[in-house]
From TrEMBL:
Residues 124-217 bind DNA. GO terms for molecular function: phosphorelay response regulator activity; transcription cis-regulatory region binding. It comes from Streptomyces piniterrae. Keywords: DNA-binding, Phosphoprotein, Transcription, Transcription regulation, Two-component regulatory system. Member of the two-component regulatory system CutS/CutR, involved in the regulation of copper metabolism. CutR suppresses a defective melC1 gene, encoding a putative copper-transfer gene, probably by altering copper metabolism. It holds the Pfam family Response_reg. It comes from the Bacteria. This is Transcriptional regulatory protein CutR. InterPro entries: CheY-like_superfamily, OmpR/PhoB-type_DNA-bd, Sig_transdc_resp-reg_receiver, WalR-like, WH-like_DNA-bd_sf. GO terms for biological process: regulation of DNA-templated transcription. Residues 124-217 form the OmpR/PhoB-type domain. Residues 2-116 form the Response regulatory domain.
Length: 217
């Protein structure tokens, strides 16, 4: 899942991004509304965590732009105000969910994952395929009933492949969904991560390489 965090309180923004990355999400961070508009013109995000009171361009205007573009991106709006009328107004603008500050990080993560599931065809919370069971919420993976310990990027790649339900996923798509924008697009990090993931999942291999196209399970 790829997430954009837009928050002008830099310590908070960086802390949220770090936490979401530990949950195997690819996260980009910006600190004002103008930078957010630039990012959404270039990158496809599953979820945007959007502070409402932003400098340069207000969060409401960023949200309106997302709606205007017809993007499938889901918006989780943050605000320091706990007033019900503010929350209603934010939802009417086009936000998909609303979370007042201060918030528990566990709740933020749960809401981001729930919104991420709504950007694609609905799938069950626990994904199962080829003897693999993956639980995104618990960050657990089992192969034929035996738990497999994965690093965050390995988990992220496996989740993307599991959600593709047998269709081929290119290396570029994996790079886009599992890594942030600072990753060198010419790196071999995808190939190396897939190799390590195959080894950890064991035999028989379930990740198939489709020459010239990508990978599938």
């Amino acid at each position: 899942m790829r997430v954009l965090v837009v928050e002008d309180e830099q310590l908070l923004a960086d802390a949220v991004a770090t936490g979401l990355r530990r949950e195997a999400m690819a996260v980009d961070v910006v600190y004002d509304g103008a930078a957010a508009l630039e990012r959404i013109e270039v990158n496809d995000y599953d979820v945007i965590v959007l502070d409402r009171d932003l400098p340069l361009v207000h969060g409401d205007d960023v949200c309106r732009k997302i709606v205007e573009l017809g993007m499938p991106t889901r918006v989780l709006m943050l605000t320091a105000s706990g007033d019900v009328s503010d929350r209603v107004e934010g939802l009417e603008i086009g936000a998909d969910d609303y979370l007042p500050k201060p918030f528990a990080f566990t709740e933020l993560t749960a809401r981001v994952r729930a919104l991420g599931r709504r950007t694609t065809v609905a799938l069950p919370p626990v994904l199962e395929r080829a003897g693999i069971k993956l639980d995104p919420n618990r960050r657990e993976v089992f192969r034929d009933g035996k738990e497999v310990q994965l690093a965050p990027k390995e988990f992220a790649v496996l989740e993307v492949l599991m959600r593709s339900e047998g269709t081929v996923v290119s290396a570029e798509q994996l790079l886009e969904k599992a890594w942030d924008e600072n990753t060198d697009p010419f790196t071999n990090v995808v190939r190396v991560t897939v190799m390590t993931l195959r080894r950890k999942l064991g035999e028989p291999a379930v990740i198939v390489t489709v020459p010239g196209s990508g990978y599938r399970i």
